[in-house]
Design brief:
Elements: H1 6-9, H2 22-33, E1 40-44, H3 51-63, H4 77-84, E2 90-94, H5 101-110, E3 121-126, H6 133-144, E4 150-156, H7 164-167, E5 171-174, H8 180-194, H9 200-209, H10 214-227, H11 234-241, H12 246-257, H13 261-273, H14 278-298, H15 311-321, H16 326-346, H17 350-362, H18 372-380, E6 387-388, E7 393-396, E8 399-402, E9 409-410, H19 425-430, H20 432-442, H21 444-449, E10 454-459, E11 462-467, H22 472-478, H23 481-495, E12 500-505, H24 518-527
Parallel strand pairs: 1-4, 1-5, 2-3, 3-4, 11-12
Antiparallel strand pairs: 6-9, 7-8, 10-11
Helix pairs in contact: 3-4, 5-6, 8-9, 9-10, 12-14, 13-17, 14-15, 14-16, 16-17, 20-23
Amino acid sequence: MSYLVFARKWRPQNFDEIVGQSHVAKTLKNAISSKRIAHAYIFSGPRGVGKTSTARIFAKALNCQKGISANPCNECANCRDISQGISLDVLEIDGASNRGIDEIRQLRENVKFSPSSANFKIYIIDEVHMLTTEAFNALLKTLEEPPEHVKFIFATTQPNKVLPTILSRCQRFDFRKISIVEITQKLKEIIKAEHINIDEKVLVAIAKSADGSLRDAESILDQLVSYSADKISLKDVTAVLGLIEQDVLFEFGKMIIESNTQSLIKLLDSLLSSGKDLSQLLDNLIEHFRNLMVCRISNSQKITDLVDLPQDFAQAIFKQSQELSLERILYVLQALVDVKELGRRINSLRIPLEVAFVKITHNFNQPTVKPKEEIQVKNQHPAEPVVRTIPAVIKSERGAINISGDKEEKNIPPASVDKAIDVNIDLVNSIWNSFLNQISQTRMSVATYLADAKLDTCENYMVTVSLPRGASFHKEFLEHKENQQLIEQTFNQLLGARVRVNFVISDREPEKQEEHESFVKDIMEKFKGRVI
């Protein structure tokens, strides 16, 4: 007997063996038991999730020689012929190669004949969306009122391409992607029955690479068994499939937590040197930080329903998520998504990803999680005003407000700002250093882009801030809605009056950066760059 691949050998033979589609199996079983059997069904969903297998099981349930039953015997001649795909009364048609109107006309003629030995003549049309519009229209009347002995089962991966007039004549079942946990469990059953020596981490890696398709997972397992005659290791999987190990993703997360830029760049270089697909690495990193985000907001270790991974992996992700603030996780996610978008425009991912790693690590050198003691103190004194040192004296109709730098004064919250205060360039200059200091404590990235900024004018409550020549990117960043709002709110708080801020590009040259800034030197050395 010729060799039978796992995908065929382990194909489900009854409703209870269908993996990951319990909602479909339960509905069909109930329909059979209550004799509420429709004349046409459409099974839609991704590839390799059990659409055609379910159609065959349904056909066996209707045509079993022991009677219509939700549990076909799989022993009678009808069941065996349907399982092997050789039944004269259950016809499987490929919609891609039989998509024309002539083939459908032939089908319309054939449906008139009664089944040879079964209860029903059943037509299973795979990839039905491939039929032409003319073919669909020719099928309409037969589909709406077929002979009592005929049933139609359509399968498709793209239901949006099926005519609405066809969909409205069918009962629709949506098949979902099979979870990693469910695929892993099925693979465990297979390796146990086949006496294959394999580690559970390998099964998880196979399940992840299958992208929700059990058939793909079984095919990958079949390939690995041929590759390694003895025990299959995780190294074998990565060698054959070029996968990114889960441990590597945790290592990336650890380096980002530690703001270890150099190690991040080296690890990336090592993976590329070993032939890893950079696009797949980026997708895996985005998925990993998505899982971290879900764990961070759930604040519960019972997150296996949200993180599609086995329990031990999910717990490890939960543990790592507690070392990052939600703000930083979202920042990393946004940076990685930006890399994906930029990569499409410049046809390269390596440099954008390296730049993203530098931004991710250097923009978050402050502690990632606030100490519990700090949070408790803040909650105990929510109304306590902030104490700041601000030089100058502001006069208003209410009287003088002493903000002299000689002693500390309690700054009034923004709710009490006064439009009657005369805001001029001298007043803004007097609080400029305090403004930069407060911005740096609130959002370091904004303060960094303001480092070369200069006060230009202040007229009619409009503060104009100039940036050096070539700083258009800085201007765009500072004018981002959230950043502009932060800048204006800080000015309002310190000035005691509401102002607007306008950014302009001047003709002056940018000031030279201090050469001892280590991260700039690291970037220049890594990319062999020069100052221009």
